[in-house]
Write a structure and sequence with these properties.
Elements lengths: L11 E2 L22 E5 L12 E6 L5 H11 L8 E7 L5 E4 L5 H8 L8 E7 L6 H5 L3 H18 L6 H15 L11 H12 L6 H6 L2 H14 L5 H12 L8 E7 L5 E8 L3 E5 L7 E4 L4 E8 L7 E7 L6 E5 L2 H19 L27 H4 L2 E4 L1 H4 L15 E9 L4 E7 L7 E7 L6 H14 L10 E5 L5 E5 L6 H7 L6 H20 L12 E5 L2 E4 L14 E2 L4 E2 L6 H6 L4 H16 L11 H9 L12 H10 L10 H29 L35 H5 L29 H11 L3 H4 L21 H26 L12 E2 L6 E2 L31 H4 L30 H19 L8 H22 L8 H27 L6 H35 L5
Parallel strand pairs: 2-6
Antiparallel strand pairs: 1-14, 2-3, 3-14, 4-5, 4-6, 7-8, 7-13, 8-9, 9-10, 11-12, 12-13, 15-16, 16-17, 17-19, 18-19, 20-21, 22-23, 24-25
Helix pairs in contact: 5-8, 5-9, 15-17, 15-20, 17-19, 26-27, 26-29, 27-28, 28-29
Protein name: Focal adhesion kinase 1
Membrane topology: Peripheral membrane protein
EC number: 2.7.10.2
């Protein structure tokens, strides 16, 4: 483990009397060894193998056994007698195995005093193996993993460059299989996965340098892909055991061999082999059969010494039960004899199940512990300690003292949640500046040990580094037991619950605002090179109805939540994670971007969790098959397009948070503009009177249903009854009725309608006025209600009502039949979209000429027995003459032309014609046009509109003053249409070369069509005023 990424669980003392790691040790003389010992080990962590290490603080009374035991206790290892501590001098290559009874201070004084500081490497290793060790280690997973990493590290350093390429490929792929346990068998077939393995992780971690340099990259890639598939179905333990199986014939990792001689002189040169299966044996040459010398259970004592001859060789003597004389082995150096003695002693202790050493001082008969008894006595209450610490604690880990607050200033309130370490309470923090500051207090139930307290306070150490309006702020900490973390209180709780409760009160703009605020917080974290690793709606807190804040730093991986999938290090939120995080356990800013995309999806879905009903193990398969979360209802296409970019399989293709923040800001502004437009249209739709009410507050009669279309139907606009009476300039088409059924386009209604329908309409909408207004006349804008059943006997009235009910059911069946002929995405009065091939069709427009050739909608089948209306004034002008955007042509009907007026020198008529021609020309050119050509086309339309409005301004003074407001409202509508056209043009230019380009082209066409239709409506308004002037009727 790298010194900068140490496991917090190692921050503990070895035994009683240990002091806090923040306390200072007793003063030592200059030049004395430092009391912090760096020990390398093979307990797996996130850094590269070979650099896993922990710093250990020790006292003068600490021995090697105590240090080993602490590692064993922390990692819950059951095979403690198998471990030993080795000291290596990196420059000379000399190795010393340190006996457990040796004092650490004595070892450092003996071996480090005259050596460079970085020359000595202390390494914890498994040295003493029991019989059938692999079977026993499978029951002790920490020991099995430790031994695997140790053997594999030895193989990569000493053997990997000399083995066959096929063996090297298999062993490397087994490590990939073990390390990336969630990687699917065909995952490396994807180019992005292989490149991530090759560039980000590095192939040198798995394969020897000789293989990488001798094989061509393309060939190597194919070989790795094919070999990996052989082991695709192995789990972690099976991969480890398969590794040992393949390696054992070429590397005997289960025994140690020493070159030495049997006897007290160099008589027989042999290779002494010591291991769990053979015991103590020797080989005279490599091909010979081992000759057994002794079993560990028969060894009674071990002695080593140095010969007093010139060569000063080492000598090892074993007292073996049943042997007539000691077994003597001569070595080249005393160090080799010491190491052999330590190895045999360790096996003897392991086999006999004792902790007392079998090594005795030569000629004295005293245990080895007595050899080092010259160490001075120490005060065990203050100095007999050894502590394993993180290097962050010595160098980089920030102190919490600056945020330490007094417990009596915090008043705990009700419990508002539960965390990993304890309950979360609402509270009040009192200071002179803020007498009653609401806070949230995280408590720790079991902070009696430094281990738990370190984990608990880690979140506070992380949070104190951030200062952002959308990140939860740290108020302070209380480090003394029981530990508390005091944070700002977000009154509305977590975002997911908030979305579920307020689902029907939140509009789309609010949801996009939440996503934008989170993007600013994550862009801030990205700038500080911080990876959150658990971005989800449950980890976002709601401060107010328009403000959210990101929280849960550093603790979310330990949360007990069903959304988490248990991996090697804690539990991980699989359904939110990027594929490289699932496959390779790689967490980067790019993986945070993926998770943010899922979080946005949660927000748009009002708190629904992703991949509902899918098992955690199956999520990666769906992602690799190209499946993504579906577009939420009412989600803008631009926002969903942004989500899909966040979910790019290749991390390099995902946007950065700075880009996401900018794009979300644009989408938010667009939604606000559209929301304002919808509000404006709604207010216009719900206006209590028409453009000119004439001061009459009476409810108008229901007009006859005309056969011409609504110009604003695609926007959901529907008029007041007065509007409908004015020859129906604005009629509803796409609006839904109270039962959720879409209203049908006006062209589906014939020019004839039953009088009873009118009566039924007002029975539904004006139940009281039916009885309070008995006398209305149709002439002059009033209708005679006599004959609507007011004076009929009850029996006839009932018959009429039954007949009306049958007619309504017939109408509904007819409407449903006609509805099937319409395309779902068609926009009435806006042009049509062919959904089969996605092609864009221009709007079908008719110039306001006197004799147009038009195609009209089909007639509604006549209803038998329904009373018809005469050809009155309302029916004479019941058709506008414009075809809807959808081309339904079952029958041909020639609708009446535009008002029959003298068009000589009619500037309004001429400019309306010119505007419509400009729109038609733009519609015909827009499909193949490039974004640079949009502006000239829209400019031509704008110039034509400006000329039209100027002509209208000249015409208004010639019209009665009572009609001015009506004309001005129609003018304003044209200005709004032009602004909409310009806005859609900008969007089409902005999203060029994206999947949304065609959609915005279609929206441009829709906006242009609306402009042309509203221009014709303006002409109709002026024509009606002129007709009233000609007949002498007062304006309505």
């Amino acid at each position: 483990m790298a010194a900068s990424n140490l496991d917090p669980r190692l921050n503990h003392t070895l035994g009683p009397g240990a002091r806090s790691r923040f306390s200072q040790g007793p003063e030592r003389s200059p030049g004395a060894p430092d009391r912090v010992l760096k020990v390398f080990h093979y307990f797996e962590s996130d850094s590269e193998p070979g650099v896993w290490a922990s710093n250990i603080r020790h006292g003068d009374g600490t021995d090697v056994r105590g240090i080993i035991q602490r590692f064993v206790d922390i990692h819950k290892v059951r095979s403690a007698p198998c471990f030993g501590l080795r000291l290596s001098h990196l420059r000379s290559g000399e190795v010393h195995w340190l006996h457990p009874d040796l004092g650490v201070s004595h070892v450092r004084e003996k071996y480090e005093l005259n050596q460079p500081h970085d020359d000595c490497r202390y390494e914890l290793r498994i040295r003493y193996l029991p019989k059938g060790f692999l079977n026993k280690f499978t029951e002790d997973k920490p020991t099995l993993n430790f031994f695997y990493h140790q053997v594999r590290n030895d193989y990569m350093l000493a053997m990997a460059d000399h083995v066959d390429q096929d063996v090297a490929l298999k062993l490397g792929c087994l490590e990939i299989r073990r390390f990336f346990r969630d990687l699917r068998g065909n995952a490396l077939d994807k180019k992005s996965n292989y490149e991530l393995l090759e560039k980000d992780v590095g192939l040198k971690r798995f394969f020897p340098k000789s293989l990488l340099e001798s094989v061509k990259p393309k060939t190597l890639r194919k070989s790795i892909q094919q070999t990996f598939k052989q082991f695709a179905n192995l789990n972690e333990e099976q991969s480890v055991l398969k590794f040992f199986e393949i390696l054992s014939p070429i590397y005997r990792y289960d025994k140690e061999c020493f070159k030495c001689a049997l006897g007290s002189s160099w008589v027989i040169s042999v290779e002494l082999a010591i291991g769990p299966e053979e015991g103590i044996s020797y080989l005279t040459d490599k091909g010979s059969t081992p000759t057994h010398l002794a079993n560990f259970s028969h060894v009674q004592s071990i002695q080593f010494s140095i010969n007093e001859d010139k060569e000063r060789k080492g000598m090892l003597q074993l007292d073996v039960a049943g042997a007539s004389e000691p077994l003597t082995v001569t070595t080249t150096t005393l160090t080799t004899a010491e190491n052999m003695a330590d190895l045999i002693d360790g096996y003897c202790r392991l086999v006999k199940g004792v902790s007392q050493s079998f090594i005795v001082r030569p000629h004295k008969g005293r245990p080895l512990l007595w050899v080092y008894s010259f160490i001075q006595p120490v005060n065990h209450k203050t100095d007999d300690y050894a502590e394993i610490v993180d290097e962050e604690d010595v160098h980089t880990m920030p102190s919490t003292r600056d945020y330490e607050i007094q417990r009596d200033r915090v008043e705990l309130g009700r419990c508002i949640g539960e965390g990993q370490f304890g309950d979360v309470h609402q509270g009040i923090y009192s200071t002179p500046e803020h007498p009653c500051l609401p806070v949230a207090v995280k408590t720790c139930k079991n902070c009696t040990s430094d281990n738990v307290r370190e984990k608990f306070l880690q979140e506070a150490l992380t949070m104190r580094q951030f200062d952002h309006p959308h990140i939860v702020k740290l108020v302070g900490v209380i480090t003394e037991n029981p530990g508390w973390i005091v944070m700002e209180l977000c009154m509305l709780g977590e975002l997911r619950s908030f979305l579920q409760v307020r689902k029907y009160n939140l509009d789309l703009a609010s949801l996009i605002l939440f996503a934008y605020q989170l993007s600013t917080a994550l862009a801030y974290l990205e700038s500080k090179r911080f990876v959150h690793r658990d971005i989800a709606a449950r980890n976002v807190l709601v401060s107010s109805t328009d403000c959210v804040k990101l929280g849960d730093f550093g603790l979310s991986r330990y949360m007990e939540d069903c959304s988490y999938y248990k991996a090697s290090k804690g539990k991980l939120p699989i359904k939110w994670m990027a594929p490289e995080s699932i496959n390779f356990r790689r967490f980067t800013s790019a993986s945070d971007v993926w998770m943010f995309g899922v979080c946005m999806w949660e927000i748009l879905m009002y708190g629904v969790k992703p991949f509902q009903g899918v098992k955690n193990n199956d999520v990666i398969g769906k992602i690799e098959n190209g499946e993504r979360l579906a577009m939420p209802h009412n989600c803008p296409p631009t926002l969903y397009s942004l989500m899909t970019k966040c979910w790019s399989y290749d991390p390099s293709k995902r946007p950065r948070f700075t880009e996401l923040k900018a794009q979300l800001s644009t989408i938010l502004e667009e939604e606000k503009v559209q929301q304002e437009e919808r509000v404006r249209m709604e207010m216009r739709r719900q206006a209590p009177s028409s453009w000119d009410t004439g001061g009459n507050d009476e409810a108008p009669p229901k007009p006859s249903r005309p056969a011409y279309p609504s110009p604003r139907c695609s926007e959901g606009f529907y008029p007041s009854p007065q509007h409908m009476g004015q020859h129906n300039h604005y009629q509803v088409s796409a609006y839904t009725d109270p039962h959720g059924r879409p209203c049908m386009p006006n062209r589906l209604y014939p020019p004839q309608v039953s009088v009873l329908d009118t009566q039924d309409h007002w029975k539904h909408h004006q139940p009281q006025d039916i009885h309070t207004r008995p006398s209305l006349h149709q002439d002059g804008g009033r209708m005679d209600l006599r004959g609507m059943g007011q004076g009929l006997p009850p029996s006839e009235m009932e018959e009429q009502l039954i007949l009306q009910q049958h007619q309504m059911e017939e109408d509904q069946r007819w409407l449903e039949q006609e509805e099937r002929f319409m395309k779902p995405e068609s926009r009435n009065s806006r042009g049509s979209l062919d959904q089969e091939d996605g092609s864009l069709q221009g709007p079908v427009m008719v110039l306001p000429l006197s004799t147009p050739e038009q195609v009209a909608p089909p007639k509604k089948p006549p209803r038998p027995g329904a009373p018809g209306l005469g050809g009155g004034h309302a029916n004479a002008n019941s058709t506008d003459g414009y075809n809807e955007g959808v081309k339904i042509q079952p029958q041909e009907i020639n609708p009446p032309p535009t008002a029959n007026l003298d068009r000589s020198n009619d500037k309004v008529y001429e400019n309306v014609t010119g505007l419509v021609k400009a729109v038609i020309e733009m519609s015909s050119k827009i499909q193949p046009a490039s974004p640079e050509e949009y502006v000239p086309m829209v400019k031509d339309v704008g110039l034509a509109l400006r000329t039209l409005l100027a002509a209208v301004d000249e015409t208004i003074p010639t019209l009665p003053s009572g009609s001015h407001r009506e004309v001005e409202m129609a003018q304003k509508l044209l200005n709004s249409d032009l602004a909409e056209l310009i806005n859609k043009m900008k969007l089409a230019q902005q999203y060029v070369m994206t999947s949304l380009q065609q959609d915005y082209k279609k929206q441009m066409l829709t906006a242009a069509h609306a402009l042309a239709v509203d221009a014709k409506n303006l002409l109709d308004v002026i024509d009606q005023v002129r007709l009233r002037m000609a007949t002498g009727a007062r304006p309505r």
